[in-house]
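Case 340 in the screening queue. Each case pairs one protein sequence with one candidate compound; here the compound is magnesium ion. For every case the pipeline is the same: read the inputs, emit a complex structure as tokens, and attach any notable structural observations.

Predict complex for case 340.
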Amino acid sequence: MKTILLDSLNEDYNSAVNKAAQILKNGGIVAIPTETVYGLAASAYNENAINKVFVAKGRPQDNPLIVHISSMEMFEEVVKFVPQKAKILAEKFWPGPLTMICPKGDKTAANVSAGLDTVAVRFPSEKTATDIISAANLPLAAPSANISGKPSPTKAEHVINDLSGKIDAVVIGKECTVGVESTVVSLVGETPKLLRPGAITFEQLKELLPDITVDKAVLKEPEKNQKVASPGMKYKHYAPKTETYLVEGNIDSFSEFVNSTKNSAAVCFIEESDKILIPKIEYGSISNESTLAQNLFNVLRKVDELNVDKVYVHAPSKTGVGLAVYNRLIRAAAFRVIEL
Ligand code: TXA
Ligand code: MG
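Case 340 output:
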């Protein structure tokens, strides 16, 4: 299949948006930019189109997709009913990087939800994404536009590297500003639960929903055969080919540790870069977790270019946006954590 490139930056924006919408209406699959990561979109009402998304990504059939909307009317259309707590969160955080798990509406295709009776919904803030949704007049199911298991794409070139020849089109847009996937909150249990941390933090959610808890799978490896609330959490993810370790410690202990290793590299904070004498990539400032989030996946894609046996990543804090970065890194490291 020839993948069409629709450049929304240097060519006609409206024409890129309208062509993407037309392909989606015809049952095709198109990668689109969002503020978090690029998504691989298909009509949430078209089972056959959704199936193409699973095939192109090599995604396990039991891992459900997020439905993207561009209006509150569309929200009502894809769910059975809008939970009270969803109204509260939407008021504060939509449009933006928050996904809510709600009871699934009948119109939404069964394979979007991998057969579950719930559906994940998000109203993105990136204009290109909402313009495409509105132009197609369709809610769009869109997982991250990477090959399953690889780091999520934060630039159009990541998508092209992974999916060229496997999908109908790529809308070329800006580099994603958030850099990690949306926060996922379940609103279908007795109490709300954070299933995946993101740029909307646990602390921010707790202000509005005081009884919210963090799902165990956020920081721990699910046990074999354990039923997980968010199927995506059970798979190895975001992994470079190079054996990756997550290292917890302060600036001095981290540099001392990595300097003693052989044929390895470090992913470190700007503040400690000078002290590190092995190949290294900075991923942002220790005191600004949003920069770590923004650079994370691009850095994980670069690790393999260093041609080393092992890479040691300095762990961020587990608070604020740091929790989202830590959650992705522990999966990239296949749960190999070194505590100094
Ligand atoms: O920021 C994002 O959310 C990006 C962009 C493209 O919007 N999308 C994204 O999709 O990250 P994906 O498929 O890579 O991640 C979806 C996550 C998975 O962990 C999946 O298991 C979970 O959401 N999920 C989806 N539907 C669910 C449901 N009904 N119940 C529980 N978890 C669900
Ligand atoms: Mg993904």
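Case 340 observations:
- The mean pLDDT is 96.
- The CA atoms of residues 7 and 172 lie 5 Å apart.
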